[in-house]
Amino acid sequence: MPGGARAATQSFDAFLEGVRAEARRQGVSAATLSRALTGIRANDRVLELDRRQPEFTQTWEQYRDARLSQTRIDAGRRAFADNRATLEAVQGRFKVSPRVVVAIWGLETNYGGFTGNFNVVESLATLAWDGRRSAYFRNELLAALKILDAGHVSADRMRGSWAGAMGHPQFMPSNFERLAVDMDGDGRRDIWDNRADALGSIGNYLARSGWREEELWGREVVLPAGFNPEDARRDNTKPLREWVRMGVRRPDGSALPALDMEAAIITPGGAGGQAFAVYHNFNVIRRYNPSNFYALAVGLLSDRVA
Fold it and tell me: pTM above 0.85?
């Protein structure tokens, strides 16, 4: 947004000089800084997108239908088949479900079809200079400069979303530093152009977030007549057998397994709409994106792609 809407109190060039000095103190080479920071400018499009982010809210049904189209499901089945060997290697190393890895890949970037066209360094510098969340984005900018300095990607290939999420898995730079992996052993963690590294990094993210290999994420259920809507909360967990005793059943009316596994009931569209029993792995998916809609869409897509 041009002009007076900015919270920044110094010029963009002066801001960059401060970043350059801080990055040098943290060990980033002068050559990397010259390649990454020369010629970038405050990007008004990034500021505009940041300002209008929470503009509208979708209903669960709108969100679900946009993300679980037959086109996306079919593309997911192809992606699963085409990358089966890599996905099996990811499963072997990280003990995560390949179906969920593919579903996250599908929701984040349409299986790598669109990973973002913004210069990540420019976007992060713009947001760090702008002042609204400057400390967060300055930290991400410094992390991005270290990724470039380590040679994982070239400055011209480090592209992503307007907010700096990068590559097939849409990792922020700080998440890249902690969680990206070199799956094929070539010495680089390349989540932009190397599918093994990208899918392995998603697998590592889920594993480090506590994925339980033998458990489902959840399932659709039907609630009994008279079910108290206030019981449908993510923090209201009971053993699944307790929900079974209360009359929660499969959509076809048959019985759920009477297990000790902790479960919560959620109704994303409100009382009277779809209902789901969700387990520990549902909350692991939410570590990737803290939204019930997102985690449900990943879970449902994962059920359909394999």
Answer: yes
